[in-house]
Amino acid sequence: MAAPFLPMSKDEMNQLGWDSCDFILVTGDAYVDHPSFGAAIIGRILENQGYRVGILSQPDWRDTRNFKALGRPRLGWLVTAGNLDSMVNHYTAAKKRRSEDAYSPGGRRGLRPDRASLVYAHRCREAYKEPPVILGGIEASLRRFAHYDYWEDKVRRSVLLDAKADVIIFGMGESAIIEIAKELVQRREGKSEGQSFDYPLGANTQGVCYVTQDISAIPEQERILLPSYEKVAEDKVLFAKAFKVQEEEQNPFAGKILIQPHGDLYLVQNRPSKPVTTEELDAVYDLPFARRPHPAYDHLGGVPALEEVEFSLTAQRGCFGGCSFCALTFHQGRIIQGRSHESLLREAKKLVAAPNFKGYIHDVGGPTANFRQPACKKQLKAGACKERQCLHPKPCPNLDVDHQDLLELLRKMRRLEGVKKIFIRSGLRYDYLMADKPAQRREFLKELCQHHVSGQLKVAPEHASPQVLRCMGKPGIDVYESFKREYERANKEAGKEQYLVPYLVSSHPGSGIREAIELAETIRDWGYNPEQVQDFIPTPGSLSTCIYYTGIDPRTMKPVYVPRSAQEKTRQRALLQFRRPENYPLVYQALRAAGRMDLVGHGPKTLLRPPRPGAGNNDREMGRDDKKGKKSVPKKQGKGRRPF
């Protein structure tokens, strides 16, 4: 029988009649028993398999005694930094400490360490040496190879070696954790009978990385030997080449086993786990989640991160969008794995039954809301293409574009008693939508605008410069503008006043000041006044991070300009918000340095008005009065998950 919550204390274990745990799951997040939190999914999956799982949520890492609170785990430690990389969670693009942590009680910061996977693993070992330490979650997953770390500005070893753990389960992990758990039981029983195990834990499991001193048992035709950590740390060209191989071989059907020497040891990555079936994914979301934070947090103000997902539905996982700055494909993969309508309707009814449900389902989606099936039929047998993207630079001729399944799902949900409105807030790939047949596209946009937009629809053109968009793996800005026209037409026909909120990124590799000015001119022509823009953050595992570190695009091995200085990054960001008075000095300096003083004046195509004669920087005026300029979105833009 499932526990109301996985136990977080000895008292809760006693209430369940447990004298020990099979696994103790250490997480950098507050424990929220909801399927949007990875620790809850892994814990409930193991519970469903008959294992006893305890939770150490945000233990104080400064004292090893806190890691003994639940006793010794019988089979192993499970360690995750949480739903976010701990460094991304803690620091901005300017490397300044964030003021809040949405995954902690009351949003309080400072409850987890930097590089949480590594620190927690060390404390687990200090508490009890014998149980194996298994790393998982996005931090460990994206740091499984030698990787560039933006916050230290250097190449670090695989986190598996630095943490001195036994294995990393990379990717989503459901299949691999079940296999590892079975293997641990076999090893425990076998050792009691005198059997020896001469191969590393997880060596025969897909979706696992391990360390070994001997790779002779791995057939040469099934493996690729990457340049060593020591070599990629010294040579940026080798780093770029190694990254390209790592990216190409993330194929669960045909990928090679990747091996990267670290000193006299070898890091081995097996093939990624195979995509889960619809039935398997449905089973995960049918597990008995309490769907709320552990009661221990009630007096602390709850956990803010739950607010965004409490009344949202995850309809699918994976993404074939191929954005260079997103490491999602290195974690979830490029093959879409979708849930059935029946499963989603069952979960929707659970939302309706919640006492605080007000009739609004905030999102039905995933990494990309309108990806509901694999990009093509070939992917389920052979995996994604090694050297071709599904959407960039143009949609692949083999791409299966279909919005009918999503439309049918939304229609069924609209008919549920108690549901007033269903929104799509996780973002649409507008280039995928524009690749659909005109009639189907119009039908989808009509119903989207009529029923599923909360006044604003978030999309992600990211930039306007062709050079930067190519580097990003995004479509040309003309595709966005075509979509914008159709979206506005659909809203007009529906009698709705609804806006697009385009996400924009500054200082991405490939963007110099001239490209940033090009984006500012596009924003001017749109009549748009961005409330928020995002500075590019080089996170482990993404193609853009590789380009940022090396100055080389590994797809072509050609050099790419990378903005690095704080001054240039600040100017690029200011250009995206050139209408703000406080940005006038920075924008003026950027335009002067770029020889674009034609954009300073009184004409309709200027960005700034000329400075007043004799006025200082603090007395300079804007290029045009915001009250007179056209606004494309209301001032308050609302919340929502960032689209990819």
UniProtKB/TrEMBL annotation:
Residues 629-644 have a biased composition (Basic residues). Residues 602-644 are annotated as: Disordered. The keyword S-adenosyl-L-methionine applies. Its cofactor is [4Fe-4S] cluster. Residues 305-579 form the Radical SAM core domain. Keywords: 4Fe-4S, Iron, Iron-sulfur, Metal-binding, S-adenosyl-L-methionine. Residues 618-628 have a biased composition (Basic and acidic residues). Binds 1 [4Fe-4S] cluster. The cluster is coordinated with 3 cysteines and an exchangeable S-adenosyl-L-methionine. PROSITE patterns: RADICAL_SAM. The keyword Aminoacyl-tRNA synthetase does not apply. Pfam families: DUF3362, Radical_SAM_N. InterPro entries: Elp3/MiaA/NifB-like_rSAM, rSAM, rSAM_horseshoe, rSAM_sf, UPF0313, UPF0313_C, UPF0313_N. It comes from the Bacteria. [4Fe-4S] cluster binds at C319, C323, C326. Belongs to the UPF0313 family. This is YgiQ family radical SAM protein. It comes from Heliobacterium chlorum. The lineage of its organism: Bacteria, Bacillati, Bacillota, Clostridia, Eubacteriales.
